[in-house]
Design a protein that fits this description.
The chain is mainly β. It folds into five domains: about 130 residues, Immunoglobulin-like, CATH 2.60.40; about 110 residues, Immunoglobulin-like (Sandwich), CATH 2.60.40; about 90 residues, Immunoglobulins (Immunoglobulin-like, Sandwich), CATH 2.60.40; about 100 residues, Immunoglobulin-like, CATH 2.60.40.10; about 100 residues, SOR catalytic domain (Immunoglobulin-like, Sandwich), CATH 2.60.40.730. The chain is about 0% helix and about 55% strand. Strands 21, 23, 24, 27 and 29 form a five-stranded mixed sheet that branches. A five-stranded mixed sheet has the order 22-30-28-25-26, with no helix packed on it.
């Protein structure tokens, strides 16, 4: 039953059900971890996070905005969770499910639900406003169906059904005459109007590129995903016929070339056409959007049945070209792949830290390297605009073995050259194809503490000592940097270790201040450790003599 409960809970969202928040533990509440109450259509479902069943469980129904109860439901049905592989486990489940069944109330309208059960000390525990119920007329689909099957040779189908208006007071139904049914196939939405009997029928001409769903009862078989929706009083009914099934047709794939050559890490081009066999044995181009797989790449055909894929060269191998759609079957020619020496830089990351150090890292892959090669040089380059004026700032030698398809991590640092862009680049040789990463922007805002003072000077031992200063940043001109944390450090005379004494935040004009008690002679300074967009800053050192 767990599966049914899950489906009911999902439907609650569509019907306006309110998800209850577990209450805090009460002194006499046997369920301190709380419970959930949810509404699906006219049915209330409760789930308790314990195996112990609540005693004398009741659901009270109140008209929204009033205190008067219009109904009290007792004898709720217990529902067991769906059996899983752990059904033989002697440890019982940790959740109990209960349902009111469809509620029967005299009047339509909006209601509030309260949940009641016995407490641990013989008293009553009452949780108010645990869910909201919209008790209203709502649409219901019946007899929804579609044509049995379609194929590229038969792309027409008919979707039909009936929409009834359900009255929860007596479970009666009447036709939803003149109602609107929205038919959704992929991203195409079409409105259909019901007749006087609530019946609708819609002819659909498919293209062969519509989204498909697998049949639950037949592995390898698919049907066209047609979603129907009807709305009344804010309540939405949905339906999806498990038809029409797709009958596949034989495919014929023609390659533009039987062999491609390219450097390791680059991408080759494999093109061609795809045709399907008609009932009389002739072939026609497949519709636009048909999926074709080339190696590990999946692409779509255009309106003439042509495709173009760009797999990556990784080794001397072959790429199989095959249909990747239930509308087709068969065919699978191969394209021979000749991979030559090359490199690939991937996973590039670059950032500048608060100390003006640029950190760069990437994976450097090499393949089909010729004999005699023992190392390749990767350059760290910077540019002001990320397009021109690239300057090599540092080089990293990467050990390389001939013929090996291997990867190594390139990781290094360099001083911050100023705002701009950074990349990694292996220039390559006539025998080995080069590689370059995308450019990554590196920039932080400069900061400074131009004013700093510890006073009074000299200070008297045991008396107040106040440290003040101003934090500015270049944004883009120098201005105060407010609401930032500044740390204060002290080093007694004759020692070498700085001790953190406290911190405070800057005000709107960038000022920071903090009072201490003068203890002994020594030096003070302030430090701004920076956020993710600024550099750190340190003040000048101010020595204060402390007299007895």
């Amino acid at each position: 039953m767990k599966k049914r409960i899950s489906a009911v809970l999902c439907a609650a969202t569509a019907m306006g059900g309110v998800l209850a928040v577990p209450t805090g533990a009460q002194a006499a509440d046997p369920f301190p971890k709380g419970f959930h109450a949810e509404v699906a259509n006219e049915e209330v479902n409760l789930s308790f996070n314990t195996w112990d069943a609540p005693a004398d469980l009741k659901v009270h129904v109140r008209k929204k905005g009033t205190t008067t109860r219009v109904a009290t439901i007792t004898g709720l049905s217990a529902r067991e969770p769906e059996c899983t592989s752990s059904c033989e486990d002697p440890i019982p489940p940790t959740t109990r499910y209960f349902s009111t069944g469809p509620l029967k109330l005299p009047d339509l309208g909006e209601y509030t639900l309260d949940v009641e059960y016995d407490g641990t000390e013989g008293d009553t525990v009452l949780h108010q406003d645990k869910a909201a119920l919209k008790y209203q007329l709502r649409p219901v689909f019946e007899n929804v169906k579609a044509s049995d099957s379609v194929s590229l040779a038969q792309l027409d189908t008919v979707v039909s059904g009936d929409v009834q208006i359900h009255d929860p007071r007596d479970s009666s139904r009447k036709p939803f005459a003149g109602g609107t049914v929205t038919r959704l196939i992929g991203t195409a939405s079409t409105p259909v109007t019901t007749d006087a009997q609530g019946h609708f029928e819609s002819k659909v001409t498919l293209s062969g590129a519509e989204p498909l769903r697998p049949h639950a009862w037949a592995e390898g078989w698919y049907y066209v995903a047609i979603d129907l929706a009807a709305e009344l009083n804010g309540a939405t009914a949905k339906a999806s016929p498990e038809n029409p099934s797709v009958s596949h047709r034989r495919a014929r794939i023609t390659r533009d070339a039987t062999k491609v050559t390219g450097a390791y890490g680059t991408r080759g081009k494999v093109g061609g056409t795809v045709d399907w066999q008609t009932p009389d044995g002739t072939y026609k181009p497949v519709p636009a959007g048909m999926k074709i797989k080339v190696g590990s790449e999946t692409v779509s055909t255009d309106s003439t049945g042509r495709f173009a894929a760009f797999p990556q060269f990784r080794a001397d191998t072959s790429w199989t070209v095959v249909e990747d759609s239930p509308w087709l079957y068969g065919s699978g020619p191969q394209v021979a792949v000749d991979t030559t020496a090359g490199t690939l830089l991937s996973g590039f990351r670059a950032a500048v830290d608060q100390y003006k150090t640029v950190n760069v890292k990437a994976q450097f892959e090499r393949g089909e390297i010729p004999a005699g090669t023992t190392a390749l040089k990767v350059d760290v380059e910077t540019s002001a605009d990320g397009k021109t004026g690239w300057t090599t700032r540092k080089s990293v030698n990467v050990a390389t073995q001939p013929g090996a398809n291997a990867a190594a991590t390139v990781e290094t640092t360099l001083p911050y050259p100023g705002p701009g862009y950074v990349r990694l680049r292996y220039a390559g040789t006539p025998a080995i194809h080069g590689a370059v990463t995308p450019a990554v922007k590196i920039a932080r805002t400069m900061t400074a503490i131009p004013r700093f003072d510890a006073a009074p000077e000299p200070a008297k031992k045991g008396q107040p000592l106040t440290v003040t200063g101003t934090l500015n940043h270049a944004d883009p001109t120098w201005k105060p940097l407010p609401d930032q944390s500044v740390q204060y450090y002290f080093r007694p005379t004759g020692t070498t270790t700085w001790k953190l004494m406290g911190d405070s935040r800057t005000t709107a004009d960038g000022t920071f201040t903090k009072a201490f008690t003068a203890d002994r002679t020594g030096s003070w300074y302030a430090r701004y450790s920076a956020d993710t967009t600024h550099f750190m800053a340190a003040s000048p050192v101010d020595e204060v003599i402390v007299n007895p």
